[in-house]
């Protein structure tokens, strides 16, 4: 749940006058997303999402994010498309925040994904990777292997407060991944955060991808490994191998994985699990008293990490070699 | 900021199938309102508000609230109109909560009202009172004079924690109001909570009234006194007499006040200020640690109460006698 920044009527009116969208008919804060302030905006031109970027998003990254959404939309990916203002800019300023208006997507995110949703997500991720291949801006992944040890250091050795032994487990894993992390797999633009709440469906049909604010350049199969973690585990912590197979098969139907990518899946999945374990651990240990956002449980990702460590090869995810 | 209850995809789908609204295209939690869980619902039939009623609303009161909205809408008041399901009911059940779908109103609430907004609100309130005069259901005002002392008792004598001397001031005021509260003024259906966030405008034109979940039967001029408190004071605590005159004149243009009502304005305004002081004080003292809702400052209403106590007659509000 978010909505951090408020603005006056006059500020909004002035801001919208910079666009070719007619008069504002309604603006309501949306209780979704935790990084930015999002509003559903209705104008004479239709429905839009108004986003005020908060401090977790670096202003210097915004041209990459907004440019990517526009590039992908032009390539046929259903994602929010930035609306340009009268000056031609996708980025403006409201209430002293960088601010953008993007198109509204219909659809709902799926709280309990079924295998057919995983198939659709896999295919959409591969299409995104293909569509991003000729995007010219670049952004390094600020949350890849090199950042994990510094990120863990911000937790001040307090991991065992969350679960006994977790600190040692993380340190061992960091050492392993730092010396075994692949660097020669096919790379390109990745979404890097394609969790269920960032994928809209209408019934069983995928109707859009949102929230490109972690997108960056990295190994394509790492993006798939993030989805494996995000979509294919049950509430009890177990992998649902039917969902994993559906995700990987869906992906392969649009972009076949190379042998090297298939072989690297377990380690990529370990890295993805550790990345979310560390950011959740950081948020868990640093959440201020009385915060509006309830931090997510880090131990979910410790359990997933253990599963991936036990995976001998990609057959653990339901695919034949 | 609210949104308390979540529901599964299947629960929502099943619920909406009970209505003649086509398929769901989008549903997003709205960060407005503190009593209920509100969602912006888009279906093939258009935009609606989906409301799940939480514990502060008594289920037995819902037929009054929903029936009133429908009655007022039929009488030409722009307010949310309940949508009936296929069985003909305005009230259903979702996620074990009483739930309704109402029509979506365009417009935004005004964060810094100007006198012309006050004129429009006054006129709309009088129209509401007229339109409500033939509504047949009744609901006593659970937050009128008889309830104030019991409500104060729930604060356990802790008022002075908020402001030194506040407890004595409240007790003196309670004693005065209990023996001087009028009971012979014109009565009918009142909104009872017509604060700026419950009134939508498009530019300077009032486009709708929302949130009828405190509506009840009481003295009409008491509703006006609530608006006087809610719309006509500045951030520094001072009455803006231009706004007060605008509100009262706007009201009088649609329903002239009787001499007795005009004479009673200062005491009604004292009662209204005390009612909001007490509910805010209660919320302030009982807010749980880590609550998602930041309680409103009770002392704002203590300052307003002092102003009304100093008012010799209705001339204090800018009108000629």
Detailed description of the structure:
- Two copies of one chain form a homodimer.
- Chain A is globular, with a radius of gyration of 20 Å.
- The longest helix of chain A is centred in the last third of the chain and has 28 residues, at 259-286.
- Chain A is 40% helix and 15% strand.
- In chain A, the strands form three sheets. In chain A, strands 1-2-3-5-4 form a five-stranded antiparallel sheet, covered by helices on one side.
- Chain A folds into two domains: 9-103, Phosphorylase Kinase, domain 1 (2-Layer Sandwich), CATH 3.30.200.20; 115-317, Alpha-Beta Complex (Aminoglycoside 3'-phosphotransferase, Chain: A, domain 2), CATH 3.90.1200.10.
- With 321 residues, chain A is an alpha+beta fold.
- Chain A starts with 8 loop residues before the first helix and ends in an 11-residue tail after the last helix.
- Chain A contains nine helices and ten strands.
- Chain A has helices at residues 9-17, 62-74, 115-131, 145-153, 166-180, 220-231, 241-254, 259-286, 299-310; strands spanning 24-29, 37-43, 46-52, 92-94, 97-103, 108-109, 187-190, 199-202, 205-209, 216-219.
Strand content of chain A: 15-25%
CATH classification class of the largest domain in chain A = Alpha Beta
Work out the count of structural domains of chain A.
2
Number of strand segments of chain A: 10
Oligomeric organization of the protein chains = homodimer
Low-confidence residue ranges of chain A: none
Order of helices and strands of chain A: HEEEHEEEHHHEEEEHHHH
Order of strands in the sheet with most strands of chain A? 1-2-3-5-4
Rounded mean pLDDT score of chain A: 94
Could you say what the CATH topology of the largest domain in chain A is called?
Answer: Aminoglycoside 3'-phosphotransferase, Chain: A, domain 2
Largest sheet of chain A: 5 strands, antiparallel
C-alpha geometry of chain A? globular
User: Whole-Å distance between the termini of chain A?
Assistant: 42 Å
Number of helices of chain A: 9
Protein chain pair with the most extensive contact, residues per chain: A-B, 34 and 34 residues
- Per CATH, the superfamily of the largest domain in chain A is Aminoglycoside phosphotransferase (APH), C-terminal lobe
Name the helicity range of chain A.
40-55%
Class from helix and strand fractions of chain A = alpha+beta
Tell me the Rg of chain A in angstroms.
Answer: 20 Å
Named CATH architecture of the largest domain in chain A: Alpha-Beta Complex
């Amino acid at each position: 749940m978010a909505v951090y920044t408020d603005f006056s009527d006059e500020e909004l009116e002035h801001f919208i006058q910079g666009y070719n969208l007619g008069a504002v008919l309604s603006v309501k804060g949306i209780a979704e997303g935790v990084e930015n302030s999002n509003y559903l905006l209705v104008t004479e031109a239709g429905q839009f999402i108004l986003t005020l970027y908060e401090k977790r998003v670096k202003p210097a990254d915004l041209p990459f994010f907004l440019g990517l959404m526009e590039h992908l939309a032009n390539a046929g990916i259903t994602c929010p498309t930035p609306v340009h203002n009268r000056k031609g800019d996708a980025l403006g300023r409201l209430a002293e925040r960088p601010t953008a208006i993007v198109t509204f997507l219909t659809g709902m995110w799926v709280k309990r994904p079924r295998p057919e949703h995983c198939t659709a997500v896999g295919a959409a991720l591969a299409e995104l990777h293909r569509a991003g291949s000729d995007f010219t801006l670049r952004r390094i992944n600020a949350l890849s292997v090199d950042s994990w040890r510094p990120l863990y250091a911000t937790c001040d050795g307090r991991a065992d407060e969350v679960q006994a032994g977790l600190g040692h487990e993380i340190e061992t894993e960091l050492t392993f991944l730092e010396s075994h992390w692949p660097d020669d797999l096919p790379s390109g633009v990745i979404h890097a955060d394609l969790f269920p709440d960032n994928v809209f469906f209408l019934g069983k049909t995928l109707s859009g991808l949102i929230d490109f604010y972690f997108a960056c350049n990295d190994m394509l199969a790492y993006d798939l490994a993030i989805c494996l973690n995000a979509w294919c585990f049950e509430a009890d912590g177990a992998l649902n191998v039917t969902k994993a197979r559906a995700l990987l098969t869906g992906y392969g139907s649009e972009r076949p994985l190379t042998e090297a990518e298939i072989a690297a899946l377990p380690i990529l999945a370990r890295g993805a699990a550790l990345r979310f374990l560390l950011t959740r651990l950081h948020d868990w240990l640093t959440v201020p008293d009385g915060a509006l956002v309830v931090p997510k449980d880090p131990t979910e990702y410790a359990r997933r990490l253990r599963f991936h460590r036990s995976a001998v090869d990609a057959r653990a995810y339901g695919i034949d070699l």
